[in-house]
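Box 3.1 A note on notation
Throughout this textbook, protein chains are presented in two layers. The first layer is the amino acid sequence; the second is a token string describing backbone geometry. Keep the layers aligned when reading.
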Amino acid sequence: MNRLDRKLDALKRENRAGLVTYFAGGDPDYTTSLDLLCQLGRAGADIIELGMPFSDPVADGPILQAANIRALAGGQTLDQMMAMLREVRLRDDATPIVVMGYFNPVLHYGPARFFADVADAGADAVILVDLPLEHANVYRPQLEKAGLHLIAMTAPTSSDARMAAVLKPATGFVYHIAIAGTTGAGTPDEQVIAAAITRLRAHTDLPVAAGFGIRSVQQVRKVAAHADLVVVGSRLVDVLAKHGVAAALGEVASLASALPR
């Protein structure tokens, strides 16, 4: 079992939802980002979602696009991300890390090499937003060899047939996009999320995460009544950009307080 498996098992035993926190690696610079990442677990993050900066993050809204631009301007690369992961693991070897991004940089790096290197550096799973099921199957043996989960994603527009196909090979957990739009583009409706998660559970026994547009303690509490994991990204990235590391960690702690410990 990798760190993610252990955390998901612990959350199930504790009968509580977990908090997933997203930050772009290298935003606003390597040193600041590393300092933040090393403290997220202690602040209350159950799972860290670490963004791989990319020049064309088509699923992301303005806040995360700006984070990508800052990180790239600061010199963040995949090699820098590997180094960052190794440094994080020297200070926090327990909190699961899910590396999230787009497939183009991974393809350029070399998929088999990337999966092996990122796992060796300390990642537990990957989310590749623009890698469809039909192409992802080619890489599953490489991911399995590296000991990584490939996190499946579903959307409000996913049909039952598509859900069934996407979820059949899924491992780890399922990431449900709560709104039809980019990150931070709107506020998800609790009843819509509840209905979507009910549909999902008909196709999988994996834990379900809900993200996109969740920004407040009240929203976290409401979504946690239906989902196993609650993902917060744009709100945290915005606080980091405007107020710095201490404020971002404080926001993580505030959001975590909405979930029973």
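Residues 3-253 form a domain with the TIM Barrel fold (CATH 3.20.20.70). Residues 76 and 140 are 27 Å apart (CA to CA).
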